[in-house]
Write a structure and sequence with these properties.
The protein is of the alpha+beta class. The protein folds into 2 domains: 7-172, Aminopeptidase (3-Layer(aba) Sandwich); 188-360, Aminopeptidase (3-Layer(aba) Sandwich), CATH 3.40.630.30. The chain has helices spanning 22-29, 32-37, 47-62, 106-119, 135-143, 207-215, 217-220, 230-238, 240-245, 293-308, 323-331; strands at 7-9, 12-15, 66-72, 75-82, 90-97, 125-131, 147-157, 163-172, 192-193, 197-201, 250-256, 262-272, 277-284, 313-319, 335-345, 351-360. The strands form 2 sheets. Strands 1-2-3-4-5-6-8-7 form an 8-stranded mixed sheet, sandwiched between helices. Strands 9-10-11-12-13-14-16-15 form an 8-stranded mixed sheet, with helices on both faces. Strand 9 and strand 10 (197-201) form a beta hairpin. Helix 6 crosses helix 8 (230-238). The N and C termini lie far apart (58 Å). Bound molecules: coenzyme A.
Length: 363
């Protein structure tokens, strides 16, 4: 049985919820983001739901789990709970922060303190799950010292009934807790622009344009991936935030800065922190070719990467015959490093050579 302790962490006090929290809980649970990512909460959420929650919290404590109100200066700012630990000393936590207290490290602080407290009370392993689309919660998990352990496909539903993949995290008693600094920080202000092109995270709203571009024969001819459906590409666009926040890759839509039109796609992938190396890949919608858009986009991303990440080498690979792509890389400051013979498989069992390029961190 877990003791009904009060946990103090920085400016926060975590204690069992009390009736005086009801008004704030009702407000927090009526927030659309909360309702979206916690679809089992009643919606709309009323005073009776808060009373039911107090009964549920009591039962949780009675049953060996924990249910805390997160408070700051005596005021409710969120909730965090732990299931009763199982036979193996394993539990799972869940949390929410009221919209008026977000972005101030409240969730990350609480999601670090509660496992520390659980480890002091016999728990060995704490689990946590966040939807691939819940970037704020994913970031909380990394900041709170959890390690990513895998993807649970279609494991839960969001409020609109759509199934969503869940990222599974775990923290073990004795795990060293890293600083949580992201290898790939988000763009400050959410975008990069030189006034002619604008780079923004590839979003689900781009899926149609992205799909049409990938299906264009002049793009498909240089793609290593099998042909994709619109549903595949929509799903891929929903992964942008997760891939970025987990340091795996950056997926960008290139927009015409003047009109906002979707002009193409640029990615930073194959991120290898141990080598300080990542690879770029790109495609442009035919109507936007011949205007220097891709050179501008590659320059923007490479300049940003060397200024904001520990990357030392940005590499690219092009087919030997792809002259337009060679010109982009030359103009964007890449140098040819060699040829990988017969790297790219082509239809009919043929294979073609890959020209390897790199741009190095400026000294
Ligand atoms: C998830 C949630 C608890 C985060 O609470 P919080 O107190 O704002 O979290 P923190 O301030 O500790 O950290 C949030 C991080 O996400 C980042 N973030 C938030 N929204 C983001 C977005 N849309 N894209 C990228 N990053 C985002 C913040 O910048 C911050 O990271 P940083 O410290 O590196 O800048 C809160 O958004 C919430 O209650 N959501 C609804 C309920 C929910 O999703 N619960 C979790 C279910 S798994």
């Amino acid at each position: 049985m877990l003791p009904r302790d009060v946990i103090s962490t920085g400016p926060l006090i975590l204690r069992p919820p009390v009736a005086g929290d009801a008004e704030a809980i009702v407000k927090a649970c009526n927030d659309p983001v909360t309702a979206w990512f916690l679809p089992l909460l009643p919606s709309p959420y009323g005073p009776q739901d808060a009373r039911d929650y107090f009964d549920m919290a009591e039962a949780k404590w009675e049953g060996g789990g924990a249910e805390f109100a997160i408070t700051e200066n005596g005021q409710y700012v969120g909730s965090i709970s732990a299931r009763p630990p199982d036979h193996w000393g394993v539990t799972e936590i869940g949390y929410l922060v009221a919209p008026w207290a977000r972005g101030k490290n409240v969730a990350a602080r609480a999601a670090r303190a509660v496992p520390d407290w659980l480890f002091d009370h016999g728990v060995r392993r704490v689990e946590l799950q966040a939807a691939v689309e819940n970037v704020a919660s994913l970031r909380v998990a990394y900041k709170a010292g959890f390690l990513e352990e895998g993807l649970r496909r279609d494991a839960k539903r969001l409020r609109d009934g759509r199934y969503v993949d869940m990222v599974a995290f775990g923290r073990l008693r004795g795990d060293a807790v890293a600083s949580g600094a992201p290898y790939l920080p988000f763009f400050e202000g959410g975008q990069l622009s030189d006034g002619v092109v604008r780079l923004v995270p590839l979003a689900v709203q781009d899926a149609g344009d992205f799909h049409r571009m990938l299906a264009d024969p002049t793009v498909a001819a240089y793609s290593m991936a099998p042909a994709s459906t619109l549903a595949d590409d929509e799903r891929r666009c929903r992964y942008t935030g997760y891939w970025w926040v987990s340091g795996q890759r950056i997926e960008l839509a290139i927009r015409d800065a003047a009109s906002g039109a979707f002009a193409g796609h640029l990615q930073l992938t194959q991120v290898l922190p141990s080598l300080g190396q990542a690879m770029i890949g790109y495609s442009l919608v035919p109507a936007f070719r011949g205007k220097g858009f891709m050179t501008r986009a590659v320059n923007l991303l490479a300049d940003w990467a060397f200024a904001n990440t520990a990357l030392h080498r940005i590499v690219a690979g092009t087919e030997v015959g792809n002259t337009a792509s060679h010109r982009v890389l030359e103009r964007a400051g890449f140098s040819k490093e060699g040829v990988h013979r017969e790297l790219f498989p082509k239809p009919g069992g043929r294979r073609v050579d890959d020209v390897a390029w790199a741009r190095l961190r400026p000294s």
